Amino acid sequence: MELFEVMTTAGAIREYVDVPNSDEVLYEILNSARFAPSGGNRQPWRVLVVKDPELKRQVRELYSHGWKEYMAHVKKGLVPFAPTNDGKWEGPAIDLDEAASMDFPNQYANHLDESPVLLVLLARLPDLACLDNGLDRQSIVGGGSVYPFGHNILLAARSLGLGGVMTTVICRREPEMKIVFDIPKEFAIAGLITLGTPKKFLTKLARRPVEEFAFVDKFGGVPFTVH
Q: Per-residue pLDDT tens for 100-146?
């Protein structure tokens, strides 16, 4: 599949047909994704390929807890856990205990353990060059050495006729996930990736046009466009 077609049709796919994917295909995906860029070429990512049904079930349960917290924010019109106070996060904007008792049915969360491929994406913290540490705002730069790899997984999967999604909801339960998978303390959970043969491909993705996010010379200046 041609590169630009892959890039413009790799939407978030959360529903899969009940067909297992081969280890050979997954290996091909990971083997291609590993060429993603990272700071100092340190390649801080690690991947857990979760196959055991009981481990998948535990991931589903932990994900569901994080999903409740996510949706409790959305219900109040908030961006979940966003650093809203001058770029800083100063604590939950909702009652987390109350969120745990709420019910937010979700097809993806309820059937997460049935995903043909379930990957836990890890980042080795000492390998992340976080050059925005010390600024008076939320740090984000370190993810630049991990998420291109995660996105490469999704692009490689799309090129092979599969679909998937990367979600960070599971990060809300990092301590429990570390216990379940014996993850060393120097690693952080960067996200969860599921892959499979889509029930339906999304080929018309809704995205803002270039003119709405690219400016010439100054923020909010003349939109970048071609005539």
A: 999 998 999 999 999 999 999 999 999 999 999 999 999 999 999 99
CA torsion through residues 174, 172, 148, 7, sign: positive
Q: Residue holding tokens 């990060």?
A: 171
Q: Which two tokens stand for residue 91?
A: 């604590």
- As beta bridge partners, residue 85 has 88
The total number of structural domains in the chain stands at 1
Region for 220 from its dihedrals, namely left if φ exceeds 0, alpha if ψ lies in -120 to 50, beta otherwise: left
Range of the domain at 29: 3-223
At 105 the pLDDT is: 87
- Predicted local confidence at residue 204, as pLDDT: 81
C-alpha to C-alpha distance for 31 and 17, rounded to whole angstroms: 24
Here the tokens at position 90 are 């100063």
> Which residues share a beta bridge with 194?
118, 165
Residues of the chain whose pLDDT is less than 70?
A: none
CB neighbour list of residue 2: distance below 8 Å, 6 or more residues apart: none
The pLDDT of residue 215:
96
What is the CATH number for 88? 3.40.109.10
Residues 59 and 48: their CA atoms lie apart, in Å, by 12
| pLDDT recorded at residue 205 | 87
SS3 111: coil
Q: Residue 198: what are its φ and ψ, rounded to 5°?
A: -65, 145
Interaxial angle between packed helices 53-75 and 174-181, expressed in degrees from 0 to 180 and rounded to the nearest 10 = 180
Burial class (CB in 10 A: 0-12, 13-18, 19+), 100: exposed
